[in-house]
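The pair is quoted verbatim as follows:
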Amino acid sequence: MEQFKLGKIVSAVGLKGEFKVYPYTDYKERFEEMKELYIEKDLHIIEKVRYSGQLVILKIQGIDDRTSAEKMRGKYLLIDRENARKLPDDSYYIADLIGLAAVDENGAAIGTVSDVIQNPAHDIYEILAADGRKILVPAVDEFVLNVDLEGGFIVLHLIEGML
């Protein structure tokens, strides 16, 4: 079953087994809507959710002290794809974008989407060209003309200097 990374545990908090999570979602309140999630391969029940700035503070059932929480540092939180939120039109999961062929307006190959860099202003698509160069393209309407998940490609408008 396909899973999505929802965040990464960055440190323990306090003495009662809570830990800080760097969320990979722009809707961190998503953690409040869930009853359980995976830490790596193990399913866990969420007891409590709170926030500290942009970080999520989680309390998971069975992790009841700082030592146990510290052992979770660096681990990923995952959910099954079927439990993922439905996205609005023209929004995509990063996992669905990575690997798409990138072509220009005329259909000429540019490369492959190799990463999506999340930035406060807007995401940036990293395109790996056939010659090994990395091309950074802001994920805005001016440059991203079409995303066709079924077709497996993304159409980009590149301006002078991007290549």
Q: What stands out?
A: The helical segments are 30-33, 66-70, 94-97. The first helix runs from residue 30 to 33. The mean pLDDT is 90. The chain has three helices and twelve strands.
